[in-house]
User: Which sequence fits this backbone?
């Protein structure tokens, strides 16, 4: 795909992704979902979520269950409207640590699709 992966820098991101990540890392999911399209598709941990409310409900439930610290590590711009952010999560969830990729697909300055994968 011709992607270049670099150390994470929020300055290199489109504003909507930067704002989403700031809210997400702070576990302010009520704000984070405002940067998603109303009918967003989110793929997370083998689940497909539809829309902001379903996404927020899952994120809130996970935050109630586990304490997690998210570190943003890498950034790549895959194609015109697709950005990938590599993250490291640590906390009291099973396994205690995991590296994830968050792949953002933008459309009309909103996040249309978010895929969170190992």
Assistant:
């Amino acid at each position: 795909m011709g992607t270049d992966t670099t150390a994470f820098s929020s300055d290199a991101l489109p504003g909507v992704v930067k704002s989403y990540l700031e809210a997400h890392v702070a576990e302010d999911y009520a704000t984070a979902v405002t940067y998603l399209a109303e009918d967003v598709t989110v793929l997370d941990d083998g689940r497909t979520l539809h829309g902001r409310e379903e996404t927020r409900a899952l994120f809130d439930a996970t935050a109630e269950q586990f304490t997690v610290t998210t570190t943003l590590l890498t950034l790549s711009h895959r194609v015109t409207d697709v950005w990938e952010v590599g993250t490291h999560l640590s906390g009291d969830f099973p396994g205690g640590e995991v590296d994830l990729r968050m792949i953002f697909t933008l459309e009309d300055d909103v996040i249309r699709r978010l895929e969170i994968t190992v």
Notes: The helical segments are 15-25, 29-32, 51-65.
